[in-house]
Structures are given as structure tokens and as C-alpha cells.
Amino acid sequence: MSATANNTGNENAMATATEKLGTYLCTYGDLIAERQERDPVWLRQLREDAWQRFHAKGFPNTHDEDWRFTNLAALARTPFQRAVKGRVTVSSGQIERFRVPGAGCRLVFVNGHFAPDLSEVCDLPDTLEICSLERAIAKAMEGSEPEGCAPEGIEQHLGRYADVRRDVFSALNTALWEDGAYLRIHRGAVIERPIHLLYVSAGAGAAIMTHPRTLIVAEPTSHAAVIEDYVSIGEETAFSNAVTELVAGQDAVVSHFLVERENLAAFNVSTLRLELARGTNVSSHSILLGGGLVRNNVHPVLAGEGAECLINGLFVGAGRQHLDNYMLVEHSQPQCSSRQFYNGILDDRARGVFHGRIVVHKDAQKTDAKQTNRNLLLSDDARIDTKPQLEIYADDVKCTHGATIGQIEEEQLFYLRSRGIEETSARNLLLYAFAAECLDRMHDSPAREFVASLIGERLTDLAVNHQAAASPAPVKEETQSWEEVG
Amino acid sequence: MALLEIQDLHASVDGHEILKGLNLTVNAGEVHSIMGPNGSGKSTLAAVLARRETYQVTGGRVLFNGKDLLEMKPEDAACEGVFLAFQYPVEIPGIGNAYFVRSAMNAIRKFHGQDELDAMDFLPLYKERMKILEMDDKLVNRSVNEGFSGGEKKRNEILQMAMLEPKLAILDETDSGLDIDALRIVAKGVNAMRGPDRAFLVITHYQRLLDYITPDFVHVLVDGKIVRSGGPELALELEDTGYGPSEADVPQVLPA
Lengths: 486, 256
Hints:
The complex is a heterodimer of chains A (486) and B (256). Chain A has a domain at 409-471. Chain A contains 10 helices and 21 strands. Chain A has helices at 3-35, 41-57, 73-77, 92-95, 133-142, 152-157, 168-176, 410-417, 423-439, 446-470, and strands at residues 81-82, 105-110, 113-114, 128-132, 181-185, 195-202, 208-210, 213-218, 223-233, 238-248, 253-261, 267-276, 281-288, 293-302, 308-317, 322-331, 337-346, 351-360, 368-377, 383-392, 398-406. In chain A, strand 2 and strand 3 form a beta hairpin. In chain A, helix 2 (41-57) runs antiparallel to helix 7, helix 8 (410-417) crosses helix 9 (423-439) and helix 9 packs antiparallel against helix 10. Mean pLDDT of chain A is 90; it is low at 1-17 and 472-486. Chain B has helices at 42-49, 74-80, 97-111, 119-132, 150-164, 180-193, 232-241; strands spanning 4-13, 16-26, 31-35, 55-64, 67-68, 82-85, 92-96, 143-144, 168-172, 199-204, 217-222, 225-230. Chain B has 7 helices and 12 strands. In chain B, a hairpin with a 2-residue loop joins strand 4 (55-64) and strand 5 (67-68). The model of chain B is unreliable at 246-252 (pLDDT under 50). In chain B, the strands form 3 sheets. A 6-stranded mixed beta sheet of chain B has the order 6-9-10-3-11-12, with helices on both faces. Chain B has a 4-stranded antiparallel beta sheet with strand order 2-1-4-5. Chain B has a single domain (4-241), classed as P-loop containing nucleotide triphosphate hydrolases (Rossmann fold, 3-Layer(aba) Sandwich), CATH 3.40.50.300. Chain B is 32% helix and 28% strand.
């Protein structure tokens, strides 16, 4: 792309973006009017501030360093509408295939709205509170508590961590969220089975947007694993802009899994903001397999001495998928360690981004931060942009980073085939071996088994498609290009 | 019918002709040794027989068990019973050694319409054969060849051969880089596999390996052709006189 074309294109994109903010403005107006009675004052204030932020900044363009490799023109251009509650109904049969075997409970949201009939929250220990965030707040306003849910923690935590000043998508979510999950794990509680939060986009006849908001409060010394899972029913486009705030109290051990397996027309921006108190051990595992344009923001703040954070991820793209991973790891207290490991597999014309930013603040002496991004490109047209960024303001720290980009090695493929393993299986084995590095960093659990099987299926598809593409076949029609400008 | 019948085989790599009309017949039960100087085409022959696609066959034909070997993909050749012990075994991080061999065995069993082996059937057999090759149990779950010593890698090749039970095993300089103990162990593994239904093509630089694996035939490969053939005594003679074409009427070929 020439510089001139680029500039003109971006000006157009900005014009379009500003114009399209109109639909967001309408949505905001409707929402505020509707919620006048229902939202507490602090929440209205939160929305108002966030909205001002979003409205002032609009969608970023590729001149913004944090968005250099991801063009949002197609997203900004699409007039997404708010999903009307109850317009689309989804049966339990339709979501059966999204079940996580071994999960302890499940909250289901359809187009951003809580679906109690599809959710399963029976037989829970009384040390775990789980409910719809919207309901929890509504009940609090009415003065009665929802069953199993004491919402006093909500005001204390909601919106206190998400970075609405820097990140417009967090601002947009904070202004427009309608529902999501609220989880509170009591002090010392050990929740054995993973908690499944299923966010379903279901065809609504129009391009819809949702802004799921999740708040997870893990009290001191509690243990839990949460799977946040984004899926589609049907092939329609949708825009999910999710924000999750996970607050880990002292010595808590929490694993968070993000699973993106939406259809290829989906736009998905998700932001995971982790707040780590002293001595916590928090893992974030992002498994990006689906979606058309995906931006995965993970933003841990190691805010207590001796906290440990694992930021682990795998992204697998084919066709014209665009999978962007933006890590911002902030060390603000001494003796903390963070480990980032992201593996990418890209085929066809898929594009991946890994932007790993580590900020070590002045007081964070003895920080130990490590970042590794490994990528496998399966076609000449696949592309990865990988960018480490270290900002260190303390003087006694250990920070390392590294990135690799490679291909399936012909030597390895031949070795497997020479033992009788046919080519597709051999390819699949090698892909799986590469992807399994990400699984090796998860504890044995139903959550790990679940993502392992998803990854296995995805890689089998990839190996089969690759084989089909290698033999003469009609050229696949290109459905969407995220590179288009304006 | 011969097990392997190579007729006037020509093959090139990157446009350079390496094999220039090679003829060889191997019957079941026989051990043939191919000797020759560096660059004479020994490894090319091994790679062509294992159907490596980077080697282009430009002429001739190869029948394996009466079937056209040159029409087969690497995996088909393997399923038909061709096995290549690599000169440089490949490391494959992330795939367990035992898992790999079991996948290969099951691929071959499937090809022949047999039931797959589960881990319970497989593992005792695998461990027993490991013992013959004096391999450490800890290698079972390690990634294929990753972090193995040179000797462990070569023994691992022989272990795979012992598990896959091929009809034709090609050992491509399996002796290179082995100390005498490892050499003895490898030879023991090979000798245990000798039988009336199986043939070996032992490619080597040195006579040393043939002290332990006695061949029925020795062939000398020079510049892409077999220039001499004889019994085991030929290997000893070569040890003394080298590969010079003194006794064969082959023109000396100088590198271009």
C-alpha cells in the first residue's frame, strides 16, 4: 500500500467513523432513557463518563500505535444495532453443542441478554455467587436480594479497573453494557469445577452489537476457573465488545479462559482486565479459533507484592481471519513475575498480530517478566506482525522477550510420512504439537480437556482444508476483506 | 519374484543428476550392503526408495513386491513395507516418542485392514524392544528425538524398525557417529530382525558395521552407478584399496 493511498484512505475512514458514531449516539440515548429508573446513580455516572470518553475519541485508526496492524474501517462502517431483548429465542437444543463437559454451572446470554431458561446454576456451593449482573443491580435497587447473590461488591469493583481513559472499546462497553455475568468466590472457597459463561450471538435479521460485561471477584485465598465462551448461531455478522474485570484478592488462584469460536463474519473485541493483589496466581488462557476480526486485549496489573501472572494464548486463523492480540502487562509492585506465551497458526490469507507491551513501574523492583510469541505460517499469503514493547522505570528487573516465525518443516513432515502416517494426519500432528505448547501450560482440568478438543477439531479442519487447497480446486470466493479502507 | 527390482534408475536433486542408471535386485531374506565414496549417490538411492519428493526420478523403474514403487507416496511405500533408518533422524518437539510409533503402526495396520492397537497392547511390546536396544525407559514419553544423543537417535531408528516390521529396511549410514558399544547394540537389533521374509539394504561408508552385520552381497556405488558387486570379502578388500576404480573399467570422473 502506498503512503498516499493510505492517508486518503484513513481520512475517509475517520470521516466514516465519526458519522457512524451517530448510531452509537442513538443507542446511548435510548439506553439512558430506558435505564433512568433502573440504574443507580454511581452507574449512571460511570456510563456518562465513559460515553464522553468514547464520543471524544471515536474509533482509532491505524495511525494509533496500539492499532497499527488492525484496520477498524469495516467495523466502523457497519451500522450495528442494539439487540432487542427477547426478539430472538434460542432453544436449549441449539446450544447443546456448546456445552463444556465437566463444567459446574453455566450462565447463558443470548445477544447480550441473560437467558435464565438456558442457564444451569443448580447445586452450587454457597461459597459461590453467580448471577446476571443486570439482575443483581436491579434487585439491589428494589431492595431485595436475588437468590444466592449479594451485590454489595458490585459498586466497589465495577468499572474501577477497566481503562476507559486509554481504551475506547472499554469506554464503549462501560457506556452501553446491558448485561453480563457477576461472579463472587468467597474467601477460601475452592470451586472445583469450571464456571462456564456462554455468550451467544444468534441471527437477528440485522447486524447487532452487544457489550457483555463480566465482573469476577475472587476473594482472598479462593480458587476458581472461569471459561468465557463466545459462539454464534447462524452466519450473520455481529459485533461483540466484551469487558471483563477480574479482581483477585490476596493469595487467590484463578484461571480465566477466553474461547472465541464465533462465525467468520463476527467482529469480536474483548478486554480482560486482571487486578492481582499480593501473592495471587492468575492465569489467562486465550483460545482464538473463530471470528472474522478479533481483537483480544489482556491487561493484567500486578498490584501486590509477589503476584504471579501467566498470559497464555493460541490463535488459529484461516481464510481472511484477522486475529489481533494486544497484551499490556503492568508491574506496579516488587517481586512479581509475569509470563506471556502466545502461539499463532495462520493459513491462507489470515493475519495475526501479537503486540506485547510490558510496563515496569518505578516501585516494581525485582520484576521478572518474560514474553514469547511463536508463529507458524502455513501459506505464503498468511501474515503475522509481532511487536514487543518494554517500558522499564525500575532499575533491578529481569525482562526478556522473543518471537519466532516459521513454517511446517518439510523434514518433519517427510519423517512422519516415511513411517506410514498419511500427509493430512502428519500435518495435523505437527500442528497439534505446536499448539499443544499452549495446553501444556494449563493444569489438568475439564477446562483444559475442553479447549484441547476444540483445538483438535480446528486443526483437523485446517489440515483437511490445506490438503484440499493443495489439489486443484475452484478458487474460493473471498467473502470479506478486513484490509479494505473507507 | 524379487522383493526389490531396480532397473536403470536415474534421479536428480535440484537439476543435478546423481543416480545415473542404477541396477539392483534384492530378494527377501538377503542383506545387501551399498558402499561408496561421499557424493556417489548412496543417500539419494535411500531417499528415492523412501519416496522423498525433493528427489526427482528422471528415468528407469523400481518394483517393490511387483508394484511400481515410484508411483507411491512416502506413506504408501511405508505401508507396503519400506522402512528408512535416517542418517540424520529428525527431531519433532511436542510429539511423544511412543505416541508417534503407535500412530505409525496403526496407520500401517489400517492400510492392511487390521484393527488398531490401543496403548495397553502397544506399550509392553514397545518397552520390550526398547530393552533389546538398551534404551532408557524415560525416552518413552519424550518428544521424538528431541534432546537425544546421537547414539540414542540411531537406536531410536532401529526401535521404530523393530516395531514397524518392514519387508525392506534401508539403513542409511546408521553407523556414522556411533561408538563401538552403540554400534554393537544397533547391530544386535538389526540381526534380531533378520529373517527369510525381510531384506536389508545397509548403506555405509565403512567396513566396520559389516563386522557385526554380515552382508550376503556388497555393492560399490561410484558416481551414480554400481561398479562392482561381490560377497562380504569385497568389503574387506575395499577397506584396503579404497573405492578407486582400479579393477573396474569405469572412467575416472572428476568434479566439474
